[in-house]
Write a structure and sequence with these properties.
Distance between the termini: 26 Å
Number of strands: 4
Strand order of the largest sheet: 2-1-3-4
Number of helices: 3
Helix content: 25-40%
Radius of gyration: 15 Å
Shape: globular
Largest sheet: 4 strands, parallel
Order of helices and strands: HHEEEHE
Length: 126
Amino acid sequence: MDKTQRPKLLHILKYLCWGKTVARSFFNATMHTVSVSGKVIDVGSGPRPYYHNFFERRGVVDFVSMDPKLGDKINFEKDKLPWKTDSIDTVLCMNVLEHIYNHNHLMQEMTRILKPDGSFVMFVPF
C-alpha cells in the first residue's frame, strides 16, 4: 500500500469503528480528498449537509444548497436548474440520483450549469 492510500484506509476504518456502514465510511473518507472552490451548488443536499465540512477549500467558497425539502420549488425530474449555463465552479450531487426516475434530465442540467473547467462530485450508494 502506498502513502496516498493509507490515509483513506485509515479514515474508512475510523468510520467503520464508529458504527457507520461500509458505504457511508467510504463516502466520508473520500470526501476528505475532494477540494472545492468558488460557487458550489449542492443539488439535493437536504437540511444538514454535514459533508461540507470534509472538503478542502481553495480560496473563497460559496455553498448553495438546493432541495425541495428546503422549500425550493423545483422538480429535479423536469425543471431547469435556476443558474446560467457555464456559471458554476462545482456541482455536488450526493445520494440523490438513486431517487430520481428521470436522472438523465438532472444530469444534463447539472452539466449545463457547470463551467467547462469546473468539478462535478457525486456519490450514488448503489
